[in-house]
Amino acid sequence: MKITEIQDLIKFVARSGVTEVEIEQANFKIIIKSEGNKRKGQQPDVYMPQPMPIQQLQMQPLQVQQQYQQVAPDNLPAAAEPKKDKDAAGENNAKYVTVKSPMIGTFYRSPGPDKSDFVSVGDEIKPGKVICIIEAMKLFNEIEAETSGKIIKVLIDDATPVEYDQPLFLVDPS
């Protein structure tokens, strides 16, 4: 588009009372905004966005990547011991029902900071009873019990992020 065509377009926009005109072609884009009758006699603002520079990523040589993969695993602490503890705890907890998070969000035990917890250890629950809240995207979702029983353990701290299917409570169904 030539500069004279742009000037004619600006004059047309000023005369017609149109508040905004946007034209996009293959190699450029022009936006003309006007405040209409408020600015009679003045030319409207013209915005011509500049093209964004393309940033190229540089790949690391394969040799450098292999150096990072060759970290000595002998120097790392052994992770086998906590698994044994988990297995032993799992055997003890086999008779309990695990209440898991149905979504990703932030776990809250009470409806507000100055309110009491929905449930505590030792409380009896029934299906439909609200046991906690999970906040996801500024929405507070009440999580209801699906089984009857007694709360044995709260597995997560208040105001802590939780993942989908993460254990929240242990319930003794007997």
Distance between the termini: 80 Å
Report the average pLDDT across residues: 76
CATH homology superfamily name of the largest domain: RNA polymerase II/Efflux pump adaptor protein, barrel-sandwich hybrid domain
CATH topology of the largest domain: OB fold (Dihydrolipoamide Acetyltransferase, E2P)
Domain count: 2
The sequence of SSEs as H and E is: HEEEHHEEEEEEEE
Sequence of strands across the biggest β-sheet: 4-11-9-6
Give unreliable regions as ranges: 64-68, 79-89
In the CATH hierarchy, what is the class of the largest domain? Mainly Beta
Number of helices: 3
Major β-sheet profile: 4 strands, antiparallel
Measured on Cα atoms, how large is the radius of gyration? 32 Å
Could you tell me the number of beta strands? Answer: 11
Structural class of the secondary structure composition? alpha+beta
3D shape = elongated
Task: Note the beta-strand portion.
Answer: 25-35%
Summarize the structure.
By secondary structure, this protein is of the alpha+beta class. The chain has 2 domains: 3-47, no CATH class; 93-172, RNA polymerase II/Efflux pump adaptor protein, barrel-sandwich hybrid domain (OB fold (Dihydrolipoamide Acetyltransferase, E2P)), CATH 2.40.50. It has helices at 3-16, 62-69, 80-92; strands at residues 20-24, 29-33, 45-47, 97-100, 105-108, 124-125, 130-136, 139-144, 149-154, 160-162, 167-172.
Folded structure, characterized:
The structure is a single chain. This protein is of the alpha+beta class. It folds into two domains: 45 residues, no CATH class; 80 residues, OB fold (Dihydrolipoamide Acetyltransferase, E2P) (Beta Barrel), CATH 2.40.50.100. The chain is 20% helix and 29% strand. The chain contains three helices and eleven strands; from the N terminus they run H-E-E-E-H-H-E-E-E-E-E-E-E-E. The protein starts with a helix and ends with a strand. About 9% of the residues have low confidence.
